[in-house]
Amino acid sequence: MKAVVLDGIVLGLQFGLLGVGMTLVYGLGGVLNLAYGQMAVLAAMVVAVTLGAGAPALVASGAGLLAAAAAGVVLDRTLMRPVYRQRGEHRVLLGLLLTLGVAFVIDGLLLWRYPSGALRLAIGGEAVPILGVRMRVGSLWATGISLAVAALLLGFRATTPGRAAHSVIQDEVGARLVGINPAAVRTFIFAASGALAALVAQTRSMTSPVGVTAGFDFTILALIVAVVGGLGSVAGAFLAGVLLGIVSTVSAFYIGQYITTIVLLAAAALTIVLRPRGLLGRSP
Amino acid sequence: MLEVAGLAAGYLGENVVEGVDVEVGAGQAVAIIGSNGAGKTTLFRALCGLLPVSAGRVRFDGRDVTGQPTHRLARAGLAYVPAERHLFPGMSVRENLLLGAYPKRPQAATEQLVFDLFPRLQERRGQPAGSLSGGEQQMLAVGRALMSRPRLLMLDEPSTGLAPKLARSAYQALQSLKQTGVTLLVAEQQVPLALSLADRGYVLENGRIRLQGAAAELERNPEVRRAYLGVA
């Protein structure tokens, strides 16, 4: 049981980071990016290809982060432009439709180019005992990286750019009045969200392969985490990520792998019914 | 400091204000007075770039700034305090103030000036802005605008939602601000309050300037007295 919970936390931290990328873009621009998972897979394929070409691991990893961040910038500066001009539910709907289109295009291109592509960052070494549980080295790396990035995100919130980004979520008109350019903040956050997706794709691949078709799985997972945490709430996404990670491994262990997606979706549905704004969502 | 010539603006292609000429000299306090729906807010939103200008020009500090985005105008020294305040409710009073200085580094001296003007803000610096009372939120909105050391401070209905006593003390604070040399442009429907602060005033009616002149002159004007000062 302890091992299952620890595995859940390892998984959950990554869920959390994945959710943060989704929730931030929604909080700032009112867009639920349905191509989010494809950005993750795009990064995974870039890493796999550059590794295959003989590049050092860090270079390959950096190339993956850059590719996904660049995809975020391009998306924000081109297709999202008309979306940001819309208000309210028109914006959400147009955002959903356009990013869904992008998701299909990236999915199709990657599948066509790398039909059996998969990223597996194998990290060898003996399993290490933690709290009496033998943890794989890959899990430990994934956890270490996730925790470091989480700390980085928390620290960023206290910096001037972090505060500026947060202010746009809180009140966009207020942000403009103090001299913040919301469009620039959105582009930056879209890029950061791509990098987060890329990062999670890589940490996931340290324990299990990330295949070319994994895009929508990532997207759905990110959506569930963001909704349960409260759309727009970074702390909420982390909390939801860890909780859902544990729920996921426990249900996989006691019931079966096939049931986890259903259990996660049920958790999301239950949250929406009981707490429509999510665990740490803002009141309107 | 601010010259507005023939300005027209509105919503959905329909002009709410039209042919508006306003001039604010450096160090002056100018009031735009008018009843609810006269177009004061529309005029202010157009001046600070929150609403597109459909005709006319706006010059700020000798430069044509017509149609410039709000964040640029803010950085150039034009600060606007809307009636709805648009604070960052989930952030502390202090964080709201720090963001006021964006993108510059917040100056401790400016922060002290704000706290001297509004001691209540210092008491509540750690509280989320959303938990403040209406009067305190108004103080914070003005304080946040002051953090950038603006050249022109525009206030839309600073007395909105305040009890008469609080409204008077808000205007006292503006009076002491004026003494420090800040240029003020205030829209107000409580005309006696506005004219007590202002050097000059404009009367806005149905989106057009009907009267203008020195504040003392407007106070004596029979039309103004009848329509806005409740004197028969």
3D structure, described in words:
The complex is a heterodimer of chains A (284) and B (232). Chain A is mainly α and 284 residues long. Chain A has one domain (2-214). Chain A has helices at residues 2-29, 36-52, 57-77, 80-85, 88-113, 137-157, 160-170, 172-177, 182-204, 215-229, 234-254, 260-274, and strands at 118-119, 128-130, 133-135, 210-211. In chain A, the strands form two sheets. In chain A, strands 1-4 form a two-stranded antiparallel sheet. A two-stranded antiparallel sheet of chain A has the order 2-3. In chain A, strand 2 (128-130) and strand 3 (133-135) form a beta hairpin. The mean pLDDT of chain A is 92. Chain B is an alpha/beta fold and 232 residues long. Helix content of chain B is 37%, strand content 28%. In chain B, strand 4 and strand 5 (63-64) form a beta hairpin. In chain B, helix 3 (93-100) packs parallel to helix 6 (134-146). Chain B is globular. The interface between A and B is medium-sized, with 18 and 27 residues.
Largest sheet of chain B: 6 strands, mixed
Q: What's the helix count of chain A?
A: 12
Whole-number average pLDDT of chain A? 92
Looking at the overall shape, the CATH architecture of the domain at 1-77 and 153-158 and 184-232 in chain B is: 3-Layer(aba) Sandwich
Oligomer: heterodimer
Question: Taking strands numbered 1, 2, ... along the chain, how are they ordered across the largest sheet of chain A?
Answer: 1-4
CATH level-four homologous superfamily name of the domain at 1-77 and 153-158 and 184-232 in chain B: P-loop containing nucleotide triphosphate hydrolases
Class per helix and strand makeup of chain B: alpha/beta
Instruction: Write down the overall geometry of chain B.
Output: globular
Q: What is the terminal-to-terminal distance of chain B?
A: 37 Å
Poorly predicted runs of chain B are none
Can you count the beta strands of chain B? 10
Mean pLDDT of chain B: 92
